[in-house]
Amino acid sequence: MTDLSQRYVPVDHAKVDFTGGFWESWTRTVREVTVPSQHRRLDEERFLEVLNFDQPPGPLARPIQPSGLSMQHFFDSDFGKWIEAASYTLKAHPNPALEEKIDEIVAKLAQGQMDDGYLNSWFIRREPDKRWTNLRDLHEMYSMGHLLEGAVAYFEATGKRAFLDVMIRAVDHIEATFGREPGKLVGYDAHEEIELALVKLYRVTKDPRHLELAQYFVDERGQMPSYYDEEARRRGDDPAHYHYQTYAYSQAHMPVREQTQVVGHAVRAMYLFSAMADLAYESSDLTLLTASDRLFDNLTRRQLYVTGGLGPSGANEGFTREYDLPNETAYAETCAAVALAFWGHRMAQIELDGRFTDHVELAIFNGALSGIARDGEHYFYENVLESHGQHRRWKWHYCPCCPTNIARLIASLGSYFYTTKPDELAVHLYGANSAEAEIGGQTVRIAQETAYPWDGDIALTLTPAAPAQFTLRLRLPGWCSKASVAVNGEAVDVRTAEKGYLAIARQWAAGDVVRIGFDMPVERLHAHPEVSEDAGKVALKRGPVVYCAEEADLGFAPQLLVLPADAEIVAAFDPDLLGGAVRLSATAGKTSHAGWNGQLYRRERPATEVTQLRAIPYHLWANRQAGGMAVWLREQF
Amino acid sequence: MTDLSQRYVPVDHAKVDFTGGFWESWTRTVREVTVPSQHRRLDEERFLEVLNFDQPPGPLARPIQPSGLSMQHFFDSDFGKWIEAASYTLKAHPNPALEEKIDEIVAKLAQGQMDDGYLNSWFIRREPDKRWTNLRDLHEMYSMGHLLEGAVAYFEATGKRAFLDVMIRAVDHIEATFGREPGKLVGYDAHEEIELALVKLYRVTKDPRHLELAQYFVDERGQMPSYYDEEARRRGDDPAHYHYQTYAYSQAHMPVREQTQVVGHAVRAMYLFSAMADLAYESSDLTLLTASDRLFDNLTRRQLYVTGGLGPSGANEGFTREYDLPNETAYAETCAAVALAFWGHRMAQIELDGRFTDHVELAIFNGALSGIARDGEHYFYENVLESHGQHRRWKWHYCPCCPTNIARLIASLGSYFYTTKPDELAVHLYGANSAEAEIGGQTVRIAQETAYPWDGDIALTLTPAAPAQFTLRLRLPGWCSKASVAVNGEAVDVRTAEKGYLAIARQWAAGDVVRIGFDMPVERLHAHPEVSEDAGKVALKRGPVVYCAEEADLGFAPQLLVLPADAEIVAAFDPDLLGGAVRLSATAGKTSHAGWNGQLYRRERPATEVTQLRAIPYHLWANRQAGGMAVWLREQF
């Protein structure tokens, strides 16, 4: 296990400027379209009304859901995540009109906050006496956690303290209410989020109480007898009537350090594990790191879709059994893949290991990015890997957690590219950008020229203010079986790479160029036989990008396709495909429609006719006309 | 189109005695286990409490469902169907203790019935002022229809009139309330059932008002403007808020004679079409027959599972688009396949055509029978065609419509074997039995000696009281491509068969033996390519029986199987398989687990290893340990 004494620090996204190409386009879309349109939705869909503390509560804007929950219980979380995403865009691109919208929300929250610091707009306006009576179901700390993340991001973007101060008062109230000290409730929120938000707050305030509170929540989780049992009985409920039946739904079935299998609600799990990594980072707690590491392996070796999506089941929005990865009914919530990126990014700051960053990259190019339409204002909540055309992107959702989550990830994506130590620069992701990092007190300019992910050639130029000795650590992606690296024309032996990172220690001077070549053939992937849904099938991947066949290109259901094992698959950039992307094509077979005379079933096997497979990046599906889609294609051999 | 002037009359099930073999075993199970155990469930599960009219209503025995409905609204339908099933068993097997249980229910219903004849136990006890305010959602006539079918069956089995008289009063009340006459509501129940029940009543009472009321309901259905719109507005509801959004859900989107595609809730559709056939039968209404005939083709050529299951979607318990037949998420409610048998049986009484009886046989041996466990007291509501082990049979259901439906079908299955005209005997189904029919006023004894469906050889012996001239019409099943028929050793040319029935007109004398041979090889069936779920796959069928591969036999997920196109498939009777059944076996391939080192995805294609396919009749699945199942198997060619 890694020495925890020295950790990596990410280069802030505001210091990473995307200079054309893939992420320039996506971050611009999020800044110019997604963030403003989401505020419009919050307004049009009457979410913001919940903040009108000076008016009587009125009828619910949204009906009570089948679960018995009003989604309005946790609308605050949507405000928090939207402010966070908006703040990330503000940091490098000031926008007074946008700040004004945020300030309006902050002013209302400040107005509504109770005297003792409690803050949840729904409870304050409707059932203040019921606050803190149901941590199991009602997400109060989850909502405050998202407000807190928003407050930290807004403070860091603008220097304005008002929101941060509101949230520090809220945290003071939480701290006064929960804990092991006499008179406090020994509780913790069933939907994790406050924990990682408190670590973010601590990094701003340096107040150890903020870290300790996070540590308390993580340590208390899953201790028996369960707080949720006690709490239910206090409400007069029978704990046995719990809708989800097991506290594994909230990763609260056993202490976190004992957990070996990723279970329950996928987003909750990812947020918890992110917080565990945060605490390991801050406090060098090896026991938390070990647990987090083990769970990362469990997820990625037994429970992860090939797209980086996770959590197959809608019933618990999460995990079922290992290797249960159905394609058409995949839940694979956008938020979960977004949060996998959070977790992997945190782990790689402690332990430089490509298995973490490979999965960050997998999620951001595939299972997370598929959650937002190319137009930047339509979404998927569930990211299926197969469709018969019934799945369409929506403009808004009754539980719109995903839109703001993917927005805040993309708006801060620069932060995932580089981390530093006093004598190191680690490069995790590739893509055209121009950045600035502090290494050993010196500013180093970094530039990547590349068409990545469409091409594996990267020219990385380093420009320290003055010549400087440090180690460059380049991630060699796990998907790449043939890489080449040269510094100023001189080859580096890539076989010296450890855990997916190639170290180059030297004195760097302005204009040093590292040329990187990642061979990027189209790969055919096969799933472990326990994933019986994928037996006899193949998925196509090129570099970090997973492909799918879509009816919009084929003109017929992609389930009719059969790809010969020896088919040559050609990759070509198409500038007209949804802003430009590499398409794949191959000669393939298709089950023929010929010779059916009104029968539904017949003895004779349908003929196979020659057709052209055309595949597009999975993240771009459902941006054109309705129709079927498949990531896993039948393979003929 | 058929001449409607002369129709076939079914030989009553009480005249058909199963003498060993397949249906003897199932009818005995239903009589000895299913019927008594269902009464126990109705009692244990507190369904019968709804009939305690002398007590205050008390809390609901069942919570309100997500749809906003209390299932108790229509518990009466369960009593009706259970009494109907019980009555069928009583008719040939008197059972005073069982009669006593029925009489208790009847007495309570009689006690609760309102002075004006209204009868619905839930409304009478809880919301008498709300009766008849929501025909769209609340199933009052559906419930009364099932009570009515029960009352007719009980009257026919025992001659007791009490229940029939209660229900005639209820029908009088319905007739006084609904119709086109001034002062009546021009409404009809959204859940069809009363229509076919009224025809059954008419056949007992011969009261033309009963037939006219059925005709009114069928004729009024789907007329615009919709009664449900008006009715919603009278309740103060906005019709636009209708949960199912379209009245196609209830086949009430257009007049029934204009409907060309089977849509909406599958059981509703089958009950409606059965009533349309009944009315065509009774009134020679060719327009209804034409519509019913066209819809039968639409269902069976574009929307029917290979098992005879129907209605793919749980969202509307019914149909979506043509060719949408997903396997693992198949809804294919037991009740729907049961009701397909009702419909096909009725159509064949008007029009002797094998396409009707072929589908009756398909449903009863497969998609309907799969709804009841071999032990006779566990059930499926949804009859999936593929599972990863998550589907298990249940003892009771929050909406237990299916158990009593499959029970009444099996308990009356004898009625599906023979129909007569004054000079004809039509044989529709095969299976060991000894029966008695009236043909031209003369009693003819019929005996079938056969191991059908495990074997296609049948010895049919006819014993008229005295030599008699009539035409025997033998169904030559559509699944059979090679049949032979001989009368007293003399071959009959089967090529003379028309619409699947072979006519043999002669003078019949006691002991005449018709030997029938249906070749019964294992057939490989392929689905139309528009059923893209089944592309590249094959289903196995032998005679009328559809097969599946079950993990209980294989020891691994059946999705890993691949069946070579040239594999020889061996059929053999196994007396130890769940009471005895023919198993299939073949040498096949299986995706190998070898060589995976903790990877979830890899480039190398998994090897295929040799294994043994073992398949059992689909209707017998999920009677042993939990595990996967597949009807459609990957085919290698």
Automatic annotation (TrEMBL), chains A, B:
Report the residue ranges that make up the Non-reducing end beta-L-arabinofuranosidase-like GH127 C-terminal domain in this protein.
522-634
Q: Where is the Non-reducing end beta-L-arabinofuranosidase-like GH127 middle domain?
A: 425-520
Leader sequence residues: none
Domain (Non-reducing end beta-L-arabinofuranosidase-like GH127 catalytic) spans: 16-414
Matching entries from Pfam families are given as:
Beta-AFase-like_GH127_cat, Glyco_hydro127C, Glyco_hydro127M
- Protein name (database record): Glycoside hydrolase family 127 protein
Q: Which organism is it from?
A: Devosia yakushimensis
